[in-house]
UniProtKB/TrEMBL annotation:
Pfam families in alphabetical order: DUF1899 (PF08953), WD40 (PF00400), WD40_4 (PF16300)
Matches recorded under SMART domains: DUF1899 (SM01166), DUF1900 (SM01167), WD40 (SM00320)
Cited InterPro entries: Coronin, DUF1899, WD40/YVTN_repeat-like_dom_sf, WD40_repeat_CS, WD40_repeat_dom_sf, WD40_rpt
PROSITE patterns membership: WD_REPEATS_1, WD_REPEATS_2, WD_REPEATS_REGION
Sequence ranges of the WD repeats: 78-120, 128-170, 171-212
Signal peptide: none
Repeat as UniProt keyword: yes
Protein name: Coronin
Keywords for this protein: Actin-binding, Coiled coil, Repeat, WD repeat
Domain of life assignment: Eukaryota
Length: 474
């Protein structure tokens, strides 16, 4: 039999990345220098939010998408946190509501005015206290309105019902810091990666661990559900310290379906999955490139397509929701790349090359829209429902929904019979060292202030002495 090359038919094999021109970027932004492994960026069809470098607390910018170009240094900020902001996420159903979490142990909900900020915003519509240590992650439920998940350095995941402003459930199965959270399509399952090198699939309402993988050969960092395929993809590090990805069956985490080494670099790999096109994007922290693959239902499961290359390293990436894409340009994905060295946010569009200017139905199937499928009470009672789908053919219409914050008093936070604010776990060695160095810096600062005051007192005493000994006084 003669050898024949095997060609794989795919409408996405020629997808290419196109960076926006300089005038369509966001310039002059003091992007945070925090080393926490997050994107520090969130985007929706109306606003771009970026965590910024600030003194005396945490802040982030919220910029209307049409306001491109250079951002003024005194541009208004959201600056109500007392510690560094570690994560921000837009509400998928109410586009002017954003959640943030911080080192000050709080989660806060902010309502951005129509047209963006005109002055600094310091008052949140809702302040959520339940974690005893800093909060590193926040995630909105994909199908239920006003349900928010937060993961803290106290190893707990709290589920907040924003209709009442209280935590209603607690997931307490982790033994170390939670690195990543990802939901399946209907939000009935939560996958987490943890610093204890374990991958877990959890039923969020009961907190029960359905599947657990102890990843010794593949140290997991990030996880993402691959839509409704009942598969998970993780990025991590092999035992030879090379970056690799692994594909898992969500119902059997005993062994990965495949493992594939990417390269020998050290930066964290962020995975992004587009369920509509079945495309996977891999972007490394500190890299300039973005690799993309197509996910199949049969072996080898993963087919490499191409790579977008850029000399500028990325600190993080925001992703535009589907309804915010430009369908007339056959855009199937859009990143907002944080370039710290230049203070620049650069949009990168992933485009399917097509000659026809008509709507391409084969690359734009029905996609999850901006209407919630469930109320918080329905979801908490055990109901699961797929997201409400919308067509991108007619174009996206902005809707004005209102978030009503509950009125409540600060009190003890009791979940599963445990007062979260009273049961504080012992501090780790790193936290104690951090506190020690902060106290040392504070002591040095106070000593410098005292020495400056002492010098000023001596100068005044000398001036007084000279004044008394002057001829005029004699």
């Amino acid at each position: 039999m003669s050898w024949r090359p095997q060609y794989r038919s795919s409408k996405f094999r020629n997808v290419y990345g196109k960076a926006a021109s300089r005038e369509h970027c966001f310039d002059g932004i003091p992007i945070t220098k925090n080393v926490h492994d997050n994107h520090f960026c969130a985007v929706n069809a109306r606003f771009l939010a970026i965590v910024t470098e600030s003194a005396g607390g945490g802040s982030f910018l919220v910029i209307p998408l049409e306001q491109t170009g250079r951002i003024e240094p005194n541009y208004p900020k959201v600056c109500g946190h007392q510690g560094n902001v570690l994560d921000i996420k837009w509400n998928p159903f109410i586009e002017n509501i954003i959640a943030s979490c911080s080192e000050d142990t709080s989660v806060r909900i902010w309502e951005i005015p129509e047209g963006g900020l005109k002055k600094n915003m310091t008052e949140a519509v809702l302040e959520l206290y339940g974690h005893s240590r800093r909060v590193g992650l926040v995630e909105w439920h994909p199908t239920t309105n006003n349900i928010l998940f937060s993961a803290g350095y106290d190893y707990k995941v709290l589920i907040w019902n924003l209709d009442i402003g209280e935590p209603v459930k607690m997931i307490d199965c982790h033994t170390d810091v939670i690195l990543c959270m990802s939901f399946n399509t209907d939000g009935s399952l939560l996958a987490t990666t943890c610093k204890d090198k374990k991958l877990r699939v959890v039923e969020p309402r009961s907190g029960r661990v359905l599947q657990e993988a102890s990843c010794k050969n593949h140290r997991v960092n990030r996880v993402v559900f691959l839509g409704s395929t009942k598969r998970l993809l993780t990025t991590g590090v092999s035992r030879w310290n090379t970056r690799q990805i692994a594909l898992w069956d969500q119902e059997d985490l005993s062994m990965p379906l495949i493992e594939e080494e990417i390269d020998g670099l050290s930066g964290l790999l962020f995975p992004f999955y587009d369920a509509d096109t079945h495309m996977l994007y891999l972007a490394g922290k500190g890299d300039g490139n973005i690799r993309y693959y197509e996910i199949g239902s049969e072996k080898p499961y993963l087919s490499y397509l191409m790579e977008f290359r850029s000399p500028a390293p990325q600190k993080g990436l925001g992703v535009m929701p589907k309804h915010g894409l430009d369908v007339s340009a056959c855009e199937v994905f859009r990143f907002y790349k944080l370039i710290t060295l230049k203070g620049l946010i650069e949009p990168i569009s992933m485009i399917v090359p097509r000659r026809s200017e008509t709507y391409q139905e084969d690359i734009y199937p029905m996609t999850p829209g901006t209407e919630p499928a469930l109320t918080p009470d329905e979801w908490l009672s055990g109901v699961n429902r797929d997201p409400i789908l919308m067509s991108l053919k007619e174009g996206y219409k902005k809707t004005s929904k209102i978030f009503k914050a509950p009125v409540r008093e600060k009190k003890s936070v009791v979940v599963n019979g445990i007062d979260l604010l009273e049961n504080v776990p012992p501090r780790t060695e790193n936290e104690l060292l951090r506190m020690f160095f902060r106290q040392q810096d504070e002591i040095r600062r106070l000593k410098d202030e005292l020495s400056q005051k002492d010098i000023r007192i001596r100068q005044l005493q000398l001036e007084l002495k000279n004044l008394r000994n002057s001829p005029k006084n004699n």
